[in-house]
C-alpha cells in the first residue's frame, strides 16, 4: 500500500510539473493558437481550487481529476512543437512552478463554466424569467 501511495504522489507531482511546463509553452510565440486555446482550458481545470465535477459525486468526481487532467495535458503537449516544449521544460527547471494568479484564473473559469451550465439548464427546463410581461 505504501508503494502505491508513493507512486501516486510521484505521478501527481509529475503532472503538476508538466502543467507548469505548459504555462511556459503557452507563452512561447511559436505555440500554435489552437494549442494555446486548449492549454487555457486544461490549465484552468488543473490549477483551479474548484473542481469542475465536485469530488463528492461518486466516481465522476474522481475521474474528473484522474482522467481529464492527464489526457488534457498529454493532448496539449502533442500539439506544441517539441523544441518549444524542451525550452519550456528548461525554464520551469530554472524558475519553478505556477503562480497564484494562474490558480485564481482557473477558479474563475470553472465558476464561469458552472454559471453557464446552470443558466442553460434553467432555460432548458423552462425556469428562466419571462420578459416584457403586463
TrEMBL record:
Q: Which UniProt keywords apply?
A: Membrane, Transmembrane, Transmembrane helix
The record's listing under InterPro entries reads: DUF1232 (IPR010652)
Q: Where is it localised?
A: Endomembrane system
Which intervals hold domain DUF1232?
Answer: 35-71
Where does it sit, as one GO cellular component term? Answer: endomembrane system
> Pfam family of this protein, just one?
DUF1232
> What topology in the membrane does the UniProt record assign?
Multi-pass membrane protein
Q: Which domain of life is it from?
A: Bacteria
Segments spanning the bilayer are 101-121
The principal localisation class reads membrane
For this entry, the protein name equals DUF1232 domain-containing protein
Its taxonomic path starts at:
Bacteria, Bacillati, Chloroflexota, Anaerolineae, Anaerolineales
Amino acid at each position: 500500500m505504501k508503494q502505491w501511495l508513493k507512486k501516486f504522489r510521484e505521478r501527481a507531482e509529475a503532472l503538476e510539473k508538466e502543467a507548469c511546463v505548459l504555462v511556459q509553452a503557452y507563452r512561447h510565440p511559436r505555440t500554435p493558437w489552437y494549442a494555446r486555446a486548449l492549454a487555457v482550458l486544461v490549465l484552468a481545470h488543473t490549477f483551479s481550487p474548484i473542481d469542475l465535477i465536485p469530488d463528492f459525486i461518486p466516481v465522476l468526481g474522481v475521474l474528473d481529476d484522474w482522467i481529464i487532467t492527464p489526457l488534457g495535458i498529454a493532448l496539449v503537449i502533442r500539439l506544441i512543437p517539441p523544441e518549444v516544449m524542451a525550452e519550456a521544460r528548461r525554464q520551469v527547471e530554472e524558475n519553478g512552478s505556477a503562480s497564484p494568479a494562474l490558480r485564481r484564473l482557473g477558479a474563475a473559469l470553472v465558476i464561469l463554466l458552472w454559471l453557464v451550465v446552470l443558466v442553460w439548464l434553467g432555460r432548458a427546463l423552462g425556469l428562466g424569467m419571462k420578459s416584457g410581461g403586463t
